User: What shape does this take?
Amino acid sequence: MAPLWISAYLVLRVYWAAAGTPGGLSPVESDLVAFTGWGAAVLCAVAADAGFVLLRTDLDGVPRRLLLGTAWAASLALVASSALLLLDVIGAVFPGLGIEFYPLGALSRAACAGGGVLLGLLTLAYQRRQGRARRSSTRGRPCGLMPPRASRRGSPSTSG
Assistant: This one.
């Protein structure tokens, strides 16, 4: 779900980068903080690609660490870029404080933050799945040569 969500947001970012971002997205005229324009589109592309790779492959060693590092970095960058979402929430919940609410910008930031959270959850699930697979394939088998101890207990050669 995360790669599809981020891919849909990527389409919006590419459209905005090519056609121009609409005005009135935030008090600073940009909906995201750190990544704007084509930078936001590239970030979304990297995040979506990392998400699709997480869903399709089981890597080991350096490629696995590179994939996890890329996915975590993209996830954190998406969430951090949507930091103004906090002001949107405060402005919507407490309208009397004088914090202006920007609905389209809030929706964009929520989509960005949601994609970051979903990618983070996908990355965490991938790490856990990989950890369980690694533990179950090597449990009780030093160097992969001996069968597990539990299966040798009842054998005639050890019960004497």
DSSP finds six helices and no strands in the chain.
